[in-house]
UniProtKB/TrEMBL annotation:
GO terms for biological process: protein import into mitochondrial matrix; protein insertion into mitochondrial inner membrane. It is found in: Mitochondrion outer membrane. InterPro entries: TPR-like_helical_dom_sf, TPR_rpt. Keywords: Membrane, Mitochondrion, Mitochondrion outer membrane, Repeat, TPR repeat, Transmembrane, Transmembrane helix. TPR repeats lie at residues 73-106, 311-344, 345-378, 420-453, 489-522. Residues 40-63 are annotated as: Disordered. Its main location: mitochondrion. It comes from Eptatretus burgeri (Inshore hagfish). GO terms for molecular function: mitochondrion targeting sequence binding; protein transmembrane transporter activity. The chain crosses the membrane at residues 12-30. It is a single-pass membrane protein. Gene3D superfamilies: Tetratricopeptide repeat domain. Belongs to the Tom70 family. This is Translocase of outer mitochondrial membrane 70 homolog A (S. cerevisiae).
Amino acid sequence: MAADSGSTRLRIAAAVGVTVAVGATAYLLWRYRRCHDLPSERRDPDGGPASALTHKSNGARNDVSLQPSVEACQVAKNSGNDLFRAEKYTEAVECYTQALALCPSDRSPELATCFQNRAAAQEKLGKWEAVLHDCSRAVDLNPKYVKALARRTRANEQLGNKTAALEDITAVCILQGFTNQSSMLTADRILKEMGREKARETFRNRKPMLPSKQFIRSYFSSFVEDGIGDVDVSDTVEDSSFITAIRHLAAGRYESVHQECEREIEEGGRWAKEAQLLRATFLLLVGDGEKAQKDLEFLIASENIPAKVIVNALIKRGSLHMQMQSPTESIADFEHAAELAPDNADVFHHRGQLFMLLERIDDAIADFEKCIKLQPDFALVHAQLAFSKYRRAMVNENESAVKSCLIELESVVKKFPKSTEACALYAQALTDQQEFPKAEKMYDNCISLEPDNATPYVHKGLLQLQWKQDLEGGVGLISRALKVDSKCDFAYETLATIEVQRGNLERAISLFHHAIELARSEMEIAHLLSLCDAAHAQSSVMAKYGLRPPF
Ligand SMILES: *[C@@H]1O[C@H](CO)[C@@H](O)[C@H](O)[C@H]1NC(C)=O
Ligand SMILES: *[C@@H]1O[C@H](CO)[C@@H](O)[C@H](O)[C@H]1NC(C)=O
Ligand SMILES: *[C@@H]1O[C@H](CO)[C@@H](O)[C@H](O)[C@H]1NC(C)=O
């Protein structure tokens, strides 16, 4: 959970629509309200191999009778533990087998320990089928046996059963009260692998869909020199398809833009290159990365095209590479763009966002600063700069710097009172600092500044959960978000996560599928599929242990 709610934070920071799933957001809400009645592991009665030596003098080694008895079992088990410590695993397995034969059949705790210990030795020998078998026996005897569950996770992974591995590690996380970093990271890793495996096919089969108007608008406003916005439609007498496209764009008739661009390109009109850039942009927005890439490559390889068009194409291809998880290629595109146009603010703004996603905070800060030198009134970038500095101060655990960054964020909000992004980023920092009333006020500001933007409703909803554990209030606000913008994937995702925690699995899954329909990249789909898998695993573990959901 080190990554905190990083992915939601980055959603705002990355106006480009590139989202990177970081951290176990799947279990986000567990932290808001820890389950107080978590079952505890039954005490391992005789320790595992690690504590073997302490038991050495305990048993009457010479008195071993071959009648089943707890004592005889202990002696055999302790010999097994000694052999384990001496790295004689095959012999250790034999001792544990003997211990199991000597253990009275009604002594579940001892039996469970022997199975678990034998599984440990089998693991050292790489006999994964045997590990799986012995761990399962141990877990049958003691369902809250964390060590056996953790070991069975590894066996299931080795044997290629990720679903079973996920269920086991989820049980471990729940039994440990979500306090063990290494278990959480294992859960996160398995979830990510499962998501990635299924995402490709889901992504190929999905229908491209335009995001909400608000999203498109804010995407375009994250560029100030894109070579599209410069085309002055009022001043032109000619009536080309591209000019019509620009008029549609300006009026928010986004669904008509693509077609006009096609026409301009087919006609080989005066604005064919700009039209191709605009078409590529819309292909990116609907999540058709493959076709977008073709257009962008064509433009980048073309001769005699306006510098701004080529630079913008490089920025967009760079972002696309990042979406496809190729950061090296992404950075190369931005380097190329910066060489071609060292005074184009967009290059540094978008590369700064890329660096934030890559957690290269110092590089991000340097780029945002360059961008502001070139475009001193770019409110969004001022906010992102202050927020990046805040993040750096948090990472460095520098309290005085955190304080001054909060002041800086506040002053950005004062300087640009109309900037929703400035308010939203300040609100996120305030939430982080548990300054809930102030954060809420900032989200209210966002909502009144941009009433058709659904994101602040979702954040405000999450705030109600974190601050007041007010489930109804939170859900109400997030549902409002969906009324404001039925294409807000973040709202679907958040609501789905809450429904998982409430134990409404079916509703959760249907909400996740809505979010998947709206996702714009394979990576986002992988993230959502992981959340879905986490939901299945959690609900099955909770049912098994008779746990109540955290809400
Ligand atoms: C994976 O494990 C689960 C639960 O133990 C089991 O029901 C399922 O059959 C296993 N799948 C495979 C392919 O072995
Ligand atoms: C954390 O959990 C793992 C199992 O996933 C376990 O091996 C390890 O000992 C635990 N660490 C602590 C500090 O409890
Ligand atoms: C904390 O940040 C301040 C700048 O705000 C800096 O002067 C100081 O050296 C930093 N302290 C540490 C320990 O890094």
